Amino acid sequence: MKILQINKFFFLKGGSERYFFDLSELLSQKGHGISILSTNHPNNFPYFEKDDFVEYNDFSKTEGIWKDSKKIIRIFWNREAAKKLEKLIKKEKPDIAHLHNIFSHLSPSIIYTLKKHNIPIVMTLHDYKMFCPNYKFFSQGKPCFDCIKRNNFRSCLNKRCIKNSWSKSLIGYLEGKWQKDFLKIIDKIDIFLAPSLFIKRKAISAGLPAKKIIHLPNFIDNEFLNNKKIKNEFNPQKYILYFGRLSEEKGIDLLIKSYLENSVKLSKWIIKIAGEGPEQDRLKKLNKRYKQIEFLGKKKIEELKKIISQSYLIIVPSIWPENFPYSILEGMGLGKVVLSARIGGMSEMIEHKETGLLFNPGDIIDLTKKINWAIDNPKKIKEIGIKAQKEILNKYNSEKHYNKLIKIYEQIKNN
């Protein structure tokens, strides 16, 4: 089968790109022909057909009224993306298109181009963009579902949900209205894949037909499947780990404040924080007096895997409802106990005190209590880690994922 994979970034920006690359590799290994459409970002991995990619819109730069206006127009309808896709379709003749993250850069123009050529469309709901203009269900420091509750996007404008900017929030509001009410893109997509049951429920609440949504979690790639055996010795180093983006909704300040309030109990323990993001300078200021909190910066995958493997406990303190984060998938896949906030799709991935630990989101007292329990029960932590790895490798391996996905492809291709 010839499969066209479409994502706006061609580098590892987040979990969406991780899935996009892992899936493309998996399908290629299974003998399918893979073609790619993306944008020409400066951080892109090398690609032999990069001339087929679309110009990247850098919204972080102000480049004058004319250039900025062109970038805004491309959010709503990117003619270049449609043109490049048309050329790619004629050259590769794909049987099916799998969309990942396309909005704001590739635009719905590609959906209409695919439909013009009668190419079936599968779309993975990696984030909440179709129901929430700022992608996150998170506004003013807490979870927000107003746009779904009110069945419109006005709350984005009222709350200035996009970077606390009225003008950017206006564009997000208009983009949402354009896609939902005028273009009706939901009707153009054949199947939506929901990595979590949480996002499936929210999608149905937002008006997506339940019959079009299939629950298909992300998977661990073969590189992680090579780590099936946990060493007989449970001998991790004395540190607790957070890894991921350093941004407000990730709740990292909650972890730091929990440590500061519990520093006597944790006096011989180190908190390691791996990653980068807009909150890193502010977070470092919370830690002026304590050397036990280390900021490691961004790490390459192999180095990060080693850091994860040597940790005692991984904490995912998010205060926003994450969909199906790779941090939990990878941590458990490497036999580690993950202590996660009980919110969004994350609570679906962990059974408390069986395959991991859960705490009430935003609750420092409960977080501290669960950290202390983990430290006081090393034997139990070892047992939970072993169970967690077995669970992940059994439920979320690449073979099971492929078998389910290929049936979905064949179903909509034949119909």
Question: Cα-atom Rg, whole angstroms?
Answer: 22 Å
Report the mean per-residue pLDDT as an integer. 92
Helix content: 40-55%
Biggest sheet record: 6 strands, parallel
Domain count: 2
CATH superfamily of the largest domain: Glycogen Phosphorylase B
Shape by Cα distribution: globular
Provide the CATH topology of the largest domain.
Rossmann fold
CATH-level-2 architecture of the largest domain: 3-Layer(aba) Sandwich
In which order are the strands of the major sheet placed? Answer: 2-1-5-6-9-10
Fraction of residues in β-strands: 5-15%
- Output the CATH class name of the largest domain: Alpha Beta
The count of β-strands is 16
What are the segments in which pLDDT stays under 50 over at least 5 consecutive residues?
228-233
Query: Termini, distance in Å?
Result: 15 Å
SS-based class: alpha/beta
The number of helical segments is 18
